[in-house]
């Protein structure tokens, strides 16, 4: 079936307009052109010890899209859980097996950091399971913890987005 010449011109013009508008919208919504600044981290005012990633408010309520060879990132839920099963263990006591649990987004990584002064020991990072939980069973000596007061923090990460939660109690290890 042959279209009349006038109808063919109208259809062609409409197609060109659709392609131009689509190309403009794609270009406008790339991270470089959208006016989105870098993601920053701030402390939560409602959850002590929690760091939250934020980006400038662009008024866009849809999830952001990444272009090129970058990996899409997930908004990271601040970790929760029992980061240390016993906050007062003794190094010389038999059975120094500890348990740690981190709950956050499924499929991202979580690790637990132990800090005393400039010394840092780490469990993980390991990938959080489909139920949103990762757990570790570990021994004090195997990760190199010594007697003293250790600050405990869980850190969840997806791409460049991170969220951290401080354990409100220190890990007090006796000799």
Helix and strand arrangement:
Layout: H1 5-28, E1 40-43, E2 50-54, E3 97-103, E4 109-116, E5 119-127, E6 133-139, E7 148-158, E8 161-166, E9 171-173
What does this structure look like?
It is a single chain. The protein is α+β, with helices and mostly antiparallel strands and 175 residues long. The chain has one helix at residues 5-28; strands spanning 40-43, 50-54, 97-103, 109-116, 119-127, 133-139, 148-158, 161-166, 171-173. Strands 1, 2, 4, 5, 7, 8 and 9 form a 7-stranded antiparallel sheet that branches. The chain has a two-stranded antiparallel sheet with strand order 3-6. A hairpin with a 6-residue loop joins strand 1 (40-43) and strand 2. The longest helix is centred in the first third of the chain and has 24 residues, at 5-28. Mean pLDDT is 74; it is low at 27-72.
Defining traits:
175 residues, alpha+beta, 7-stranded antiparallel β-sheet, two-stranded antiparallel ribbon, 9 strands
Q: Helical element count?
A: 1
Structural class: alpha+beta
Radius of gyration: 25 Å
| Total beta strand runs | 9
Please estimate the helix content: 10-25%
Principal-axis shape equals rod-shaped
Largest β-sheet summary: 7 strands, antiparallel
Q: Could you report the average pLDDT, rounded to the nearest whole number?
A: 74
* Uncertain runs: 27-72
Task: Give the terminus-to-terminus CA distance.
Answer: 91 Å
Kindly estimate the percentage of residues that lie in beta strands according to DSSP. 25-35%
Strand-and-helix sequence, N→C? HEEEEEEEEE
């Amino acid at each position: 079936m042959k279209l009349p010449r006038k109808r063919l011109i109208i259809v062609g013009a409409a197609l060109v307009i659709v392609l131009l508008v689509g190309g403009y919208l794609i270009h406008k919504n790339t991270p470089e052109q959208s006016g989105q600044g870098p993601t920053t981290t701030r402390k939560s005012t409602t959850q002590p010890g929690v760091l939250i990633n934020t980006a400038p408010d662009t008024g866009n309520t849809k999830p952001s899209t990444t272009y090129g060879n970058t990996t899409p990132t997930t908004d990271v839920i601040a970790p929760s859980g029992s980061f240390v099963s016993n906050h007062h263990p003794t190094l010389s006591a038999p059975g120094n097996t500890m348990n740690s649990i981190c709950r956050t987004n499924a499929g991202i990584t979580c690790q637990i950091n132990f800090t005393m002064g400039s010394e840092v020991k780490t469990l993980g990072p390991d990938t959080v399971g489909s139920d949103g939980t990762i757990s570790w069973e570990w021994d004090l000596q195997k990760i190199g913890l010594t007697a003293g007061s250790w600050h405990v923090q869980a850190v969840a990460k997806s791409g460049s987005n991170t969220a951290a939660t401080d354990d409100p109690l220190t890990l007090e290890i006796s000799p």
